[in-house]
Design goal:
CATH topology: Rossmann fold
Radius of gyration: 19 Å
Strand order of the largest sheet: 2-1-3-4-6-5
Number of strands: 6
Structural class: alpha/beta
Oligomer: single chain
Largest sheet: 6 strands, mixed
Shape: globular
CATH architecture: 3-Layer(aba) Sandwich
Distance between the termini: 58 Å
């Protein structure tokens, strides 16, 4: 049975697994460790919303992969701010289910939907009005349609001076040039930094909150082989089990400022 299972393991997976086990054994909280930036009170509010039964069981199950408390703390998301989320995935969007109740009534939560005019000006976000612009796994605008730079330039215009642009996305393999079609769903971290800096942003911090050293990034259907999509493994229980063990993708977490 063991040999049969190993026949489905891609090159590099066992090596990455061993590295991950050793790494986490030596540094048990390394990936999620960071100095809190929000007050204990606000962190408590966020945790209550993250765990709320108002969010579906499926949404709450993904908390362990998406680390929302640590991520929103890292981006310094306070409820009195004007917070824009790019392409939140509709009314039931994963981060929207936390951000909207957290902010409503004290600040402004402004979703920019995928069917909006963005990167052209959008009605609900005036230029220079946002304290935070957040992008969570909405990588499509970096590599599809218009020149990607137009989207970063648009985010820059939305923010106030001193405003923060925070992004979490599927981190590609830097040894492989960025695929302009984005077929595998991964985006190179260097590609994101280049586009942001061209727009005028300064990278002020990066975190490994959402890192996953088990993700070898060489799956048959790219990032979509992994949870929650699990594309292509319905009839292959061994592969599906392996992808579930890997978990969701390895992700960059980058924090930029508009000077």
């Amino acid at each position: 049975m063991t040999n049969r299972f190993l026949s489905f393991v891609p090159a590099g997976y066992l090596k990455n697994l061993l590295i991950a086990v050793l790494f986490t054994g030596l540094m048990p909280a390394a990936l999620n460790a960071q100095q809190p930036l929000l007050s204990d009170s606000l962190r408590g509010e966020l945790q209550a919303l993250i765990d709320s039964p108002e969010r579906s069981e499926e949404q709450r199950e993904r908390n362990r992969y998406r680390n929302p408390l640590e991520t929103l703390d890292f981006f310094e998301v306070r409820p009195d701010l004007t917070v824009v989320e790019i392409w939140p995935g509709g009314q039931g969007g994963w981060y929207r289910s936390i951000l909207e109740p957290y902010i409503t009534g004290r600040g402004e939560y402004l979703p920019v939907r995928s069917n909006s005019a963005f990167p052209d000006p959008v009605d609900n976000v005036a230029p220079g009005s946002a304290d935070r612009v957040l992008v969570f796994r909405a990588h499509g605008f970096m590599i599809y349609d218009r020149p990607a730079q137009a989207y970063y330039d648009a985010i820059y215009r939305m923010l106030k001076p001193g405003g923060i642009f925070g992004i979490v996305d599927h981190r590609g393999d830097e040894a492989i040039p960025q695929d302009p079609t984005g077929e595998n769903g991964y985006v190179n971290q260097s590609h994101v930094i280049m586009l942001a800096e061209r727009a005028g942003f300064e990278l002020i911090d990066q975190a490994e909150i959402n890192a996953n050293p088990l993700d070898t990034k060489d799956h048959p259907d790219g990032v979509y082989s992994l949870p929650p999509t699990l594309r292509g493994s319905l009839l292959n229980p061994f592969a599906r089990s392996r992808y579930r063990e890997i978990g969701e993708s390895d992700r960059m977490t980058l924090k930029f400022i508009k000077p």
